[in-house]
From TrEMBL, chain B:
Database matches in Pfam families: RH1, RILP
GO MF term set: dynein light intermediate chain binding; identical protein binding; protein dimerization activity; small GTPase binding
Gene name for this UniProt entry: RILPL2
Presence of keyword Flavoprotein: no
Protein name: RILP-like protein 2
Coiled coil location: 72-106
Organism expressing this protein natively: Equus asinus (Donkey)
Length: 200, 222
C-alpha cells in the first residue's frame, strides 16, 4: 500500500567559495528565511524541498557543501550523484569570481558528465559593494554554455527562479517514461558506500 | 717564557719544541715552518750570527749580515703575527663552539620538535580547541547525521500523511513490530500515554509502508 509523495527525485549540489552564501541561498529556497550570522558549513549538509513542475511532484534533495578548502575531500565525493550543480560566487568578492574556473574544473573531474550546471552571482542586493559586473558573470556563463542568474538570498531575488529553472532543465533531460518513485536510484555513489535501510 | 699559549692538541707540538730546545739552538732550523715560534727565530739568528762571526770581518760578510738581520726580523714578525692570528682564531672557534652547544641545549629543552618538516604543524596539547579527529571520522559523523536527518524527514512525512488522514489507522497488521513497540515503550517510560501512542503508530506505519520507506531510503544521500 505504498503511497507516492513525489514523482521524481532530483539531487542538486551547491558549490563555491566559502562565504558566498550557498547556505543562505538554500535556506531562502527551502525555508523562505534569511540569517545574517555567518556559520561556516561543516563538510556537507542537505535540505529537501518538493516542487511541482509540469504537473509532476518533484522532490529536490539539495546538498549544501562547505566552501572551505579543508573539507574538499569530503565534498567532492558528493559531486558524482548530483544531477544539477549550482556554482555560486559573490558579486562583492572578486576572488570568489576568479575561482569559478577552479570550481568548474572540479565539476569536470568529479561530477557526472551530463550534470546540469548553473552559475549564480549572489548578494546582488549589495550593489554599492559590487566588484564583479553582471556582464562578466554572463560572459563566463556563455563561454561554458551554462545558465546564469544574479541572486540575493537576503532580498529574495531570483532564488526560486534559479532552483526551478535548474529543476526544469533536469526534467527536460529526464526520460519520458516516468520511473517508479519507489525505485528511483539516485544513490550518490561518490566514494561513499550506500547504506541500506534498516528501518523496515 | 716567550712561548705562545698552547693548549689541547697543540701541547704535543709544544713538547716537540721543547725537544728541539734540548737539541740545541740548531734544532730550530729542523722544525716545520708552521711550528716556528719567535724563540726559534732567535735561536736561528744566534746560530747564524755565530757562523757569520766565524767568517771574519770581510766587508762582504758585513754587507750580507745586514741583509740576514733584515730577513730574520721579517721572519720574526711573520712568525709572531701568524701565531697571534692562530691563537685569536682558536679562541674565537672555542667561543662559537660553546655558544652553539648552549643554543642547542636551550633549543632541545624549549621545543623538542624544532626540526619539523615543511608540511608539519605543531599542536598545543593544552589547547582545549586543538584538532583531535580525523577527516575520516568527520566524514563518518556527517554521513550518520545526514542519514538520520533523512530518516527523520521520512518519518515526519509519513506522520503528516497519517495525521491528515491519507493513511487510515490500523491498516494492515503491525503485530510483527510488537517487540519494537515494547522497546519504544521501555525507553520512553517517562513520556505520557499520548506519546506512546504516536510511537506505536509511527512504527506500525513504517512497517506498513515498508517498501515505500525503503525505496526512499535507497534514494537518499549516501
Amino acid at each position: 500500500m505504498a503511497k507516492k509523495t513525489y514523482d521524481l527525485l532530483f539531487k542538486l549540489l551547491l558549490i563555491g567559495d566559502s562565504g558566498v552564501g550557498k547556505t543562505c541561498v538554500l535556506f531562502r529556497f527551502s525555508d523562505d528565511a534569511f540569517n545574517t550570522t555567518f556559520i561556516s558549513t561543516i563538510g556537507i549538509d542537505f535540505k529537501i524541498k518538493t516542487v511541482e513542475l509540469q504537473g509532476k511532484k518533484i522532490k529536490l534533495q539539495i546538498w549544501d557543501t562547505a566552501g572551505q578548502e579543508r573539507f574538499h575531500t569530503i565534498t567532492t565525493s558528493y559531486y558524482r550523484g548530483a544531477m544539477g550543480i549550482m556554482l555560486v560566487y559573490d558579486i562583492t568578492n572578486g576572488k570568489s569570481f576568479e575561482n569559478i574556473s577552479k570550481w568548474l574544473r572540479n565539476i569536470d573531474e568529479h561530477a557526472n558528465e551530463d550534470v546540469e550546471r548553473m552559475l549564480l552571482g549572489n548578494k546582488c542586493d549589495m550593489d554599492d559593494k559590487r566588484v564583479v559586473p553582471k556582464g562578466k558573470g554572463e560572459q563566463i556563463a556563455r563561454e561554458h554554455g551554462i545558465r546564469f542568474f544574479e541572486t540575493s538570498a537576503k532580498a529574495n531575488i531570483n532564488i526560486e527562479k534559479a532552483f526551478l529553472t535548474l529543476a526544469e532543465d533536469i526534467l527536460r533531460k529526464t526520460p519520458v517514461k516516468e520511473p517508479n518513485s519507489e525505485n528511483v536510484d539516485i544513490s550518490s555513489g561518490g566514494g561513499v558506500t550506500g547504506w541500506k535501510s534498516k528501518c523496515c | 717564557m716567550e712561548e705562545p699559549p698552547l693548549r689541547e692538541e697543540e701541547e704535543e707540538e709544544e713538547d716537540e719544541g721543547d725537544e728541539g730546545d734540548e737539541a740545541g739552538p740548531e734544532g730550530a732550523l729542523g722544525k716545520s715552518p708552521f711550528q716556528l715560534t719567535t724563540e726559534d727565530v732567535y735561536d736561528i739568528s744566534y746560530v747564524m750570527g755565530r757562523e757569520l762571526m766565524a767568517l771574519g770581518s770581510d766587508p762582504r760578510v758585513t754587507q750580507l749580515q745586514f741583509k740576514i738581520v733584515r730577513v730574520l726580523e721579517m721572519l720574526e714578525t711573520l712568525v709572531n703575527e701568524g701565531n697571534l692570528t692562530v691563537e685569536e682564531l682558536r679562541m674565537e672557534r672555542d667561543h662559537l663552539r660553546k655558544e652553539v652547544e648552549g643554543l642547542r641545549r636551550e633549543g632541545s629543552a624549549a621545543s623538542p620538535e624544532v626540526n619539523l618538516g615543511p608540511d608539519k604543524m605543531v599542536i598545543d596539547l593544552t589547547d582545549p580547541n586543538r584538532p583531535r579527529f580525523t577527516l575520516q571520522e568527520l566524514r563518518d559523523v556527517l554521513q550518520e547525521r545526514n542519514k538520520l536527518k533523512s530518516q527523520l524527514l521520512v518519518v515526519q512525512e509519513e506522520l503528516q500523511c497519517y495525521k491528515s488522514g491519507l493513511i487510515p489507522p490500523r491498516e494492515g497488521s503491525g503485530r510483527r513490530r510488537e517487540k519494537d513497540v515494547l522497546v519504544a515503550r521501555a525507553s520512553s517510560a517517562s513520556s505520557n500515554k499520548e506519546e506512546k501512542t504516536i510511537i506505536r503508530k509511527l512504527i506500525s506505519e513504517l512497517h506498513l509502508h515498508g517498501s515505500c520507506c525503503q525505496g526512499r531510503e535507497e534514494g537518499l544521500p549516501s
